[in-house]
Amino acid sequence: MFETTTVPKGPYDGIEFSVPTHSTLCVAIPQGETVLARKGAMQAYVGKVSFKHKGKGMKKIFKSMLTNESGLSLMTCTAEEESAMFCSGGGRIKLLELVDDTIYINSDHVLAMTSSLDYDITTLKSIGAIASRGLFQLKISGTGTIAITTDSVPVVLQVSPDKPVMVDPDFSVAWSKNVTMKFKLDIKKKDLIGLGSGEQVQAKFTGEGFVVTSWKRPVPRMARK
User: Rounded distance, CA 99 to CA 141, Å?
Assistant: First the structure.
């Protein structure tokens, strides 16, 4: 289901996604159709496009408050005539096509998606989720195209019942619907005196499917909350 190529995807309702360069998304939008994009992602457009804040609805707002989720702020991009819009997320862009399917994606990796898709905020059922890492993700369902952005070329790892996959939570990008993610704590005596490896918290993926990982640029210490 997940493809690491940048071939054009769609069209859905006439909307087509393509990646002319590794860091630029091009969306062809017919008149009257709408695309969802991350706020601030629009780089340029040709034609006539109107932009509006995409409200979350009370259910999503309530979940955002509970999970402290603020990473995904969307806008609707509606073409008032046949248009082409260019977006950038500051990283490598890959396209994902869903056909009556579901995928979980960490919200800071979502750049744009067709409005034919439904999304919701989900939380981890694990006490380890108290840690600030990976507390929330998006459950995206339906049929359409998603553009994600990563700091490096994504790696797709297969998950099976007898072979779970462990991932640094900061490097997890997405996983398929039949895969479950839980935090695993691996604390040793050395960790308590500052001599540990720094890998005490891991994301454990179990089930049948895949998980997508990608290296992520460290956040400068002064920029952390």
Answer: 9
* pTM score: 0.79
pLDDT at 100: 93
- Report d(CA 13, CA 32) in Å as an integer: 10
Task: Identify the residue with better confidence: 11 or 208.
Answer: 208
- Beta-carbon contacts of residue 220 (< 8 Å; ≥ 6 apart): none
Cβ(128)–Cβ(184) below 8 Å? yes
* CB contact at 8 A, 78 and 53: no
Residue 69, CA atoms < 13 Å, CB-side half-sphere: 25
| 3-class DSSP assignment, residue 169 | helix
Greatest Cα pair distance in the chain: 64
The pair of three-digit structure tokens given for residue 189, joined into one six-digit string: 């005596």
Domain definitions of the chain by residue range: 9-217
Query: Which CATH architecture is the domain 9-217 placed in?
Result: 4-Layer Sandwich (3.60)
CA distance 108 to 69: 10
Q: CA 6, CA 19: separation in Å to the nearest integer?
A: 6
Q: What is the mean pLDDT of the chain?
A: 80
